[in-house]
Amino acid sequence: MCTLEKRGNLFLLTLTGDDEQNRLNPTVIDSLLSALSQIKSQATPGSVLITTAHGRFLSNGFDLSWARAAGSGSDALDRLRFMVKSFKPVVAELISLPMPTIAAVTGHAAAAGFLLAISHDHILMRGDKGVLYMPEIDLGMTLPEYFAVAMREKIKSPAALRDMLLTGAKLKAVEAVKMGIVDSAHDSAESTLKGAVDLGEQLARRKLNGEVYAEIRKSLYPELCGILGLTQKDVVSKL
């Protein structure tokens, strides 16, 4: 599940799973979509979203135990496919959200949890603990198409993409900063969240037009927007 708190112009969205892994099952995905819908409806110039989590993980990806609970074979695979399909609108909402977005990664972010992080504009990460990890090569499963497109458009280093996707490399914060995946590394969960709040307040003071912001963001990721079903439009707020 997740909670939503509003602090002035900042929306603080926090994943609050019981097992500290914040795995993404249909209940959690629905909770995220509901929160993002609420955030969008309350957006004003200067709004900023910060996403973080309680526990050792921002998210450890899809809830494979929920999929396996259906039994082996096709029933479990159908549940996995359902989660993949259900999570796609979460990515679409983040890419089209009319405000700057910040992920405060205070633990590990793996698989769909990593995709959740890089669907934000900025990533701040705890440096003393936590990794970014795409484990599909180790799990023996291919990437959903929108995962692969998001990775290609968000991570510009071919070497980083190769190592993360084909070797399952686990990136610590300092390495991810050097690769341009993460904005900054911090020495604790508390300082990571504080850094995100400081950045959020700095962005909020600019009172950016959210609709313009969202359209410019979409223009940066045309292939991702295409696969997510997002269209672009011209917006002129000032002349």
Protein architecture, described:
The chain has 239 residues and is α/β, with parallel strands linked by helices. It has a single domain, classed as 2-enoyl-CoA Hydratase, Chain A, domain 1 (Alpha-Beta Complex), CATH 3.90.226. Helices cover 48% and strands 16% of the residues. It has helices at 26-41, 64-68, 74-96, 112-118, 136-139, 145-154, 158-166, 173-178, 189-204, 210-220, 222-228; strands spanning 2-7, 10-15, 48-53, 57-59, 101-105, 108-110, 122-126, 132-133, 184-186. The strands form two sheets. Strands 1-2-3-5-7-9 form a six-stranded mixed sheet, sandwiched between helices. A three-stranded parallel sheet has the order 4-6-8. A hairpin with a 2-residue loop joins strand 1 and strand 2. Helix 1 (26-41) packs parallel to helix 3 and helix 6 (145-154) runs antiparallel to helix 11 (222-228). The longest helix has 23 residues, at 74-96. The mean pLDDT is 93.
Write the layout of secondary structure elements.
Layout: E1 2-7, E2 10-15, H1 26-41, E3 48-53, E4 57-59, H2 64-68, H3 74-96, E5 101-105, E6 108-110, H4 112-118, E7 122-126, E8 132-133, H5 136-139, H6 145-154, H7 158-166, H8 173-178, E9 184-186, H9 189-204, H10 210-220, H11 222-228
Helix pairs in contact: 1-3, 6-11
